[in-house]
Design goal:
12 strands, Rossmann fold, seven-stranded parallel beta sheet, Hypothetical Protein Yjia, Chain: A,domain 2, five-stranded antiparallel beta sheet
Length: about 325
């Protein structure tokens, strides 16, 4: 890796809650085993990144309050410029870019393939992570919006490697139906690999696959420059009191269906411990946070066309 003149770049794409960060952490672990020095650019829709504790020992650049592909694309360029300067003091062997769950990876690719970045970085692959447990629901005209369907089409078509994640959460017969629908969108030549918890053979993840993106991606110029996620919002709830775990889980699962993702920190009753939580696919996972990180309880909810007043009212009802 160190012999390469340009820095190899891997872009992670995929809809909200598909498992991108899990895949990224796996790739970082593999990089460290290989003795490579990685860099990471993380993009978040909200004003805070509640997952930065997962990258505590990594060289991380955060782009907040938007998504790389539109509102802060200039910030991506500035970050890459900053990386180039810093690499004179501390060289990087590999770079990972994780877009938001509503980013079109084609826009990220355009930056990397433009001057002067194409002379400094080598785009190796766009890895699109798909949530198998919700794929059919997101594709249905009865349970999703045209906005979601168009966005997922962009992410799928633009991916050079498709990871069909969370396959353990669906019936066996349904998996083949999902694969057929994806193949109908992207064709038979696209590489599609099943994964559980984002875990697959690392060699598949690090293979160079950029050629498959550059040749006919099936998205028109009009679609390309029209952003399908104008109604995506991130709502932040602060001053979060101590709460019972079961009460909080029940509240999350009763949220409006247009809330697609939740994450943050809470203090559980009786524990005097801060936990991070991840909510997606109607499932929630908790992990203890070391007190040395000094995290304050907060909740970030991401979804389409959210009514902030309604969310705050729903939250306050817990403590009446």
């Amino acid at each position: 890796m160190k012999s390469e003149k340009r820095i190899p770049v891997y872009v992670l794409s995929g809809f909200l809650g598909s498992g991108k960060t899990t895949v990224l952490l796996s790739m970082l672990e593999y990089s460290k085993k290989k003795g490579w020095q990685p860099g990471v650019i993380l993009n978040e829709l909200g004003e805070a990144n509640v997952e930065n504790h997962l990258f505590e020992n990594e060289k991380v650049f955060e782009l907040l309050n938007g998504c790389i592909c539109c509102t802060i694309q200039d910030d991506l360029k500035s970050t890459l410029d900053e990386l180039v300067l810093e690499m004179e003091k501390q060289p990087l062997d590999i770079l990972f870019i994780e877009g938001t769950g509503v980013a079109n990876p084609l826009e990220i690719q355009e930056v990397l393939l433009s001057s002067p970045y194409i002379e400094q970085f080598e785009l190796m692959s766009v890895i699109t992570v798909l949530d198998a447990s919700h794929y059919l629901e997101y594709q249905s005209i009865f349970s999703s919006s045209a906005e979601v369907r168009n966005l997922m089409k962009e992410q799928t078509v633009c991916g050079s490697l498709l990871l069909l994640n969370k396959t353990d959460l669906i019936p066996e017969g349904q998996l083949e139906k999902i694969k057929q629908k994806i193949t109908k969108i992207v064709g038979k030549e696209k590489v599609m690999i099943e994964s559980l918890y984002g875990k697959i053979n690392p060699e598949h993840l690090f293979e160079k696959r950029i050629e498959s993106i550059l040749v006919g991606n099936g998205i028109s110029e009009k679609e390309h420059h029209h952003h399908h996620h104008s109604t995506v919002q991130a709502i932040k709830l602060e001053d979060v009191p101590v709460i019972r775990k079961k009460t909080f889980e029940k509240w999350l699962k009763q949220l409006p269906v247009n809330i697609l993702r939740g994450k943050g920190f809470i203090e559980m009753e009786g524990s005097k411990q801060i936990y991070s939580f991840q909510f997606a696919s109607n499932k929630v996972a908790f992990a203890p946070i070391p007190s040395s990180l000094n995290r304050k309880p907060m909740i970030i909810l991401i979804g389409m066309g959210l009514e902030e007043d309604q969310i705050h009212k729903h939250w306050k009802q817990l403590f009446v």
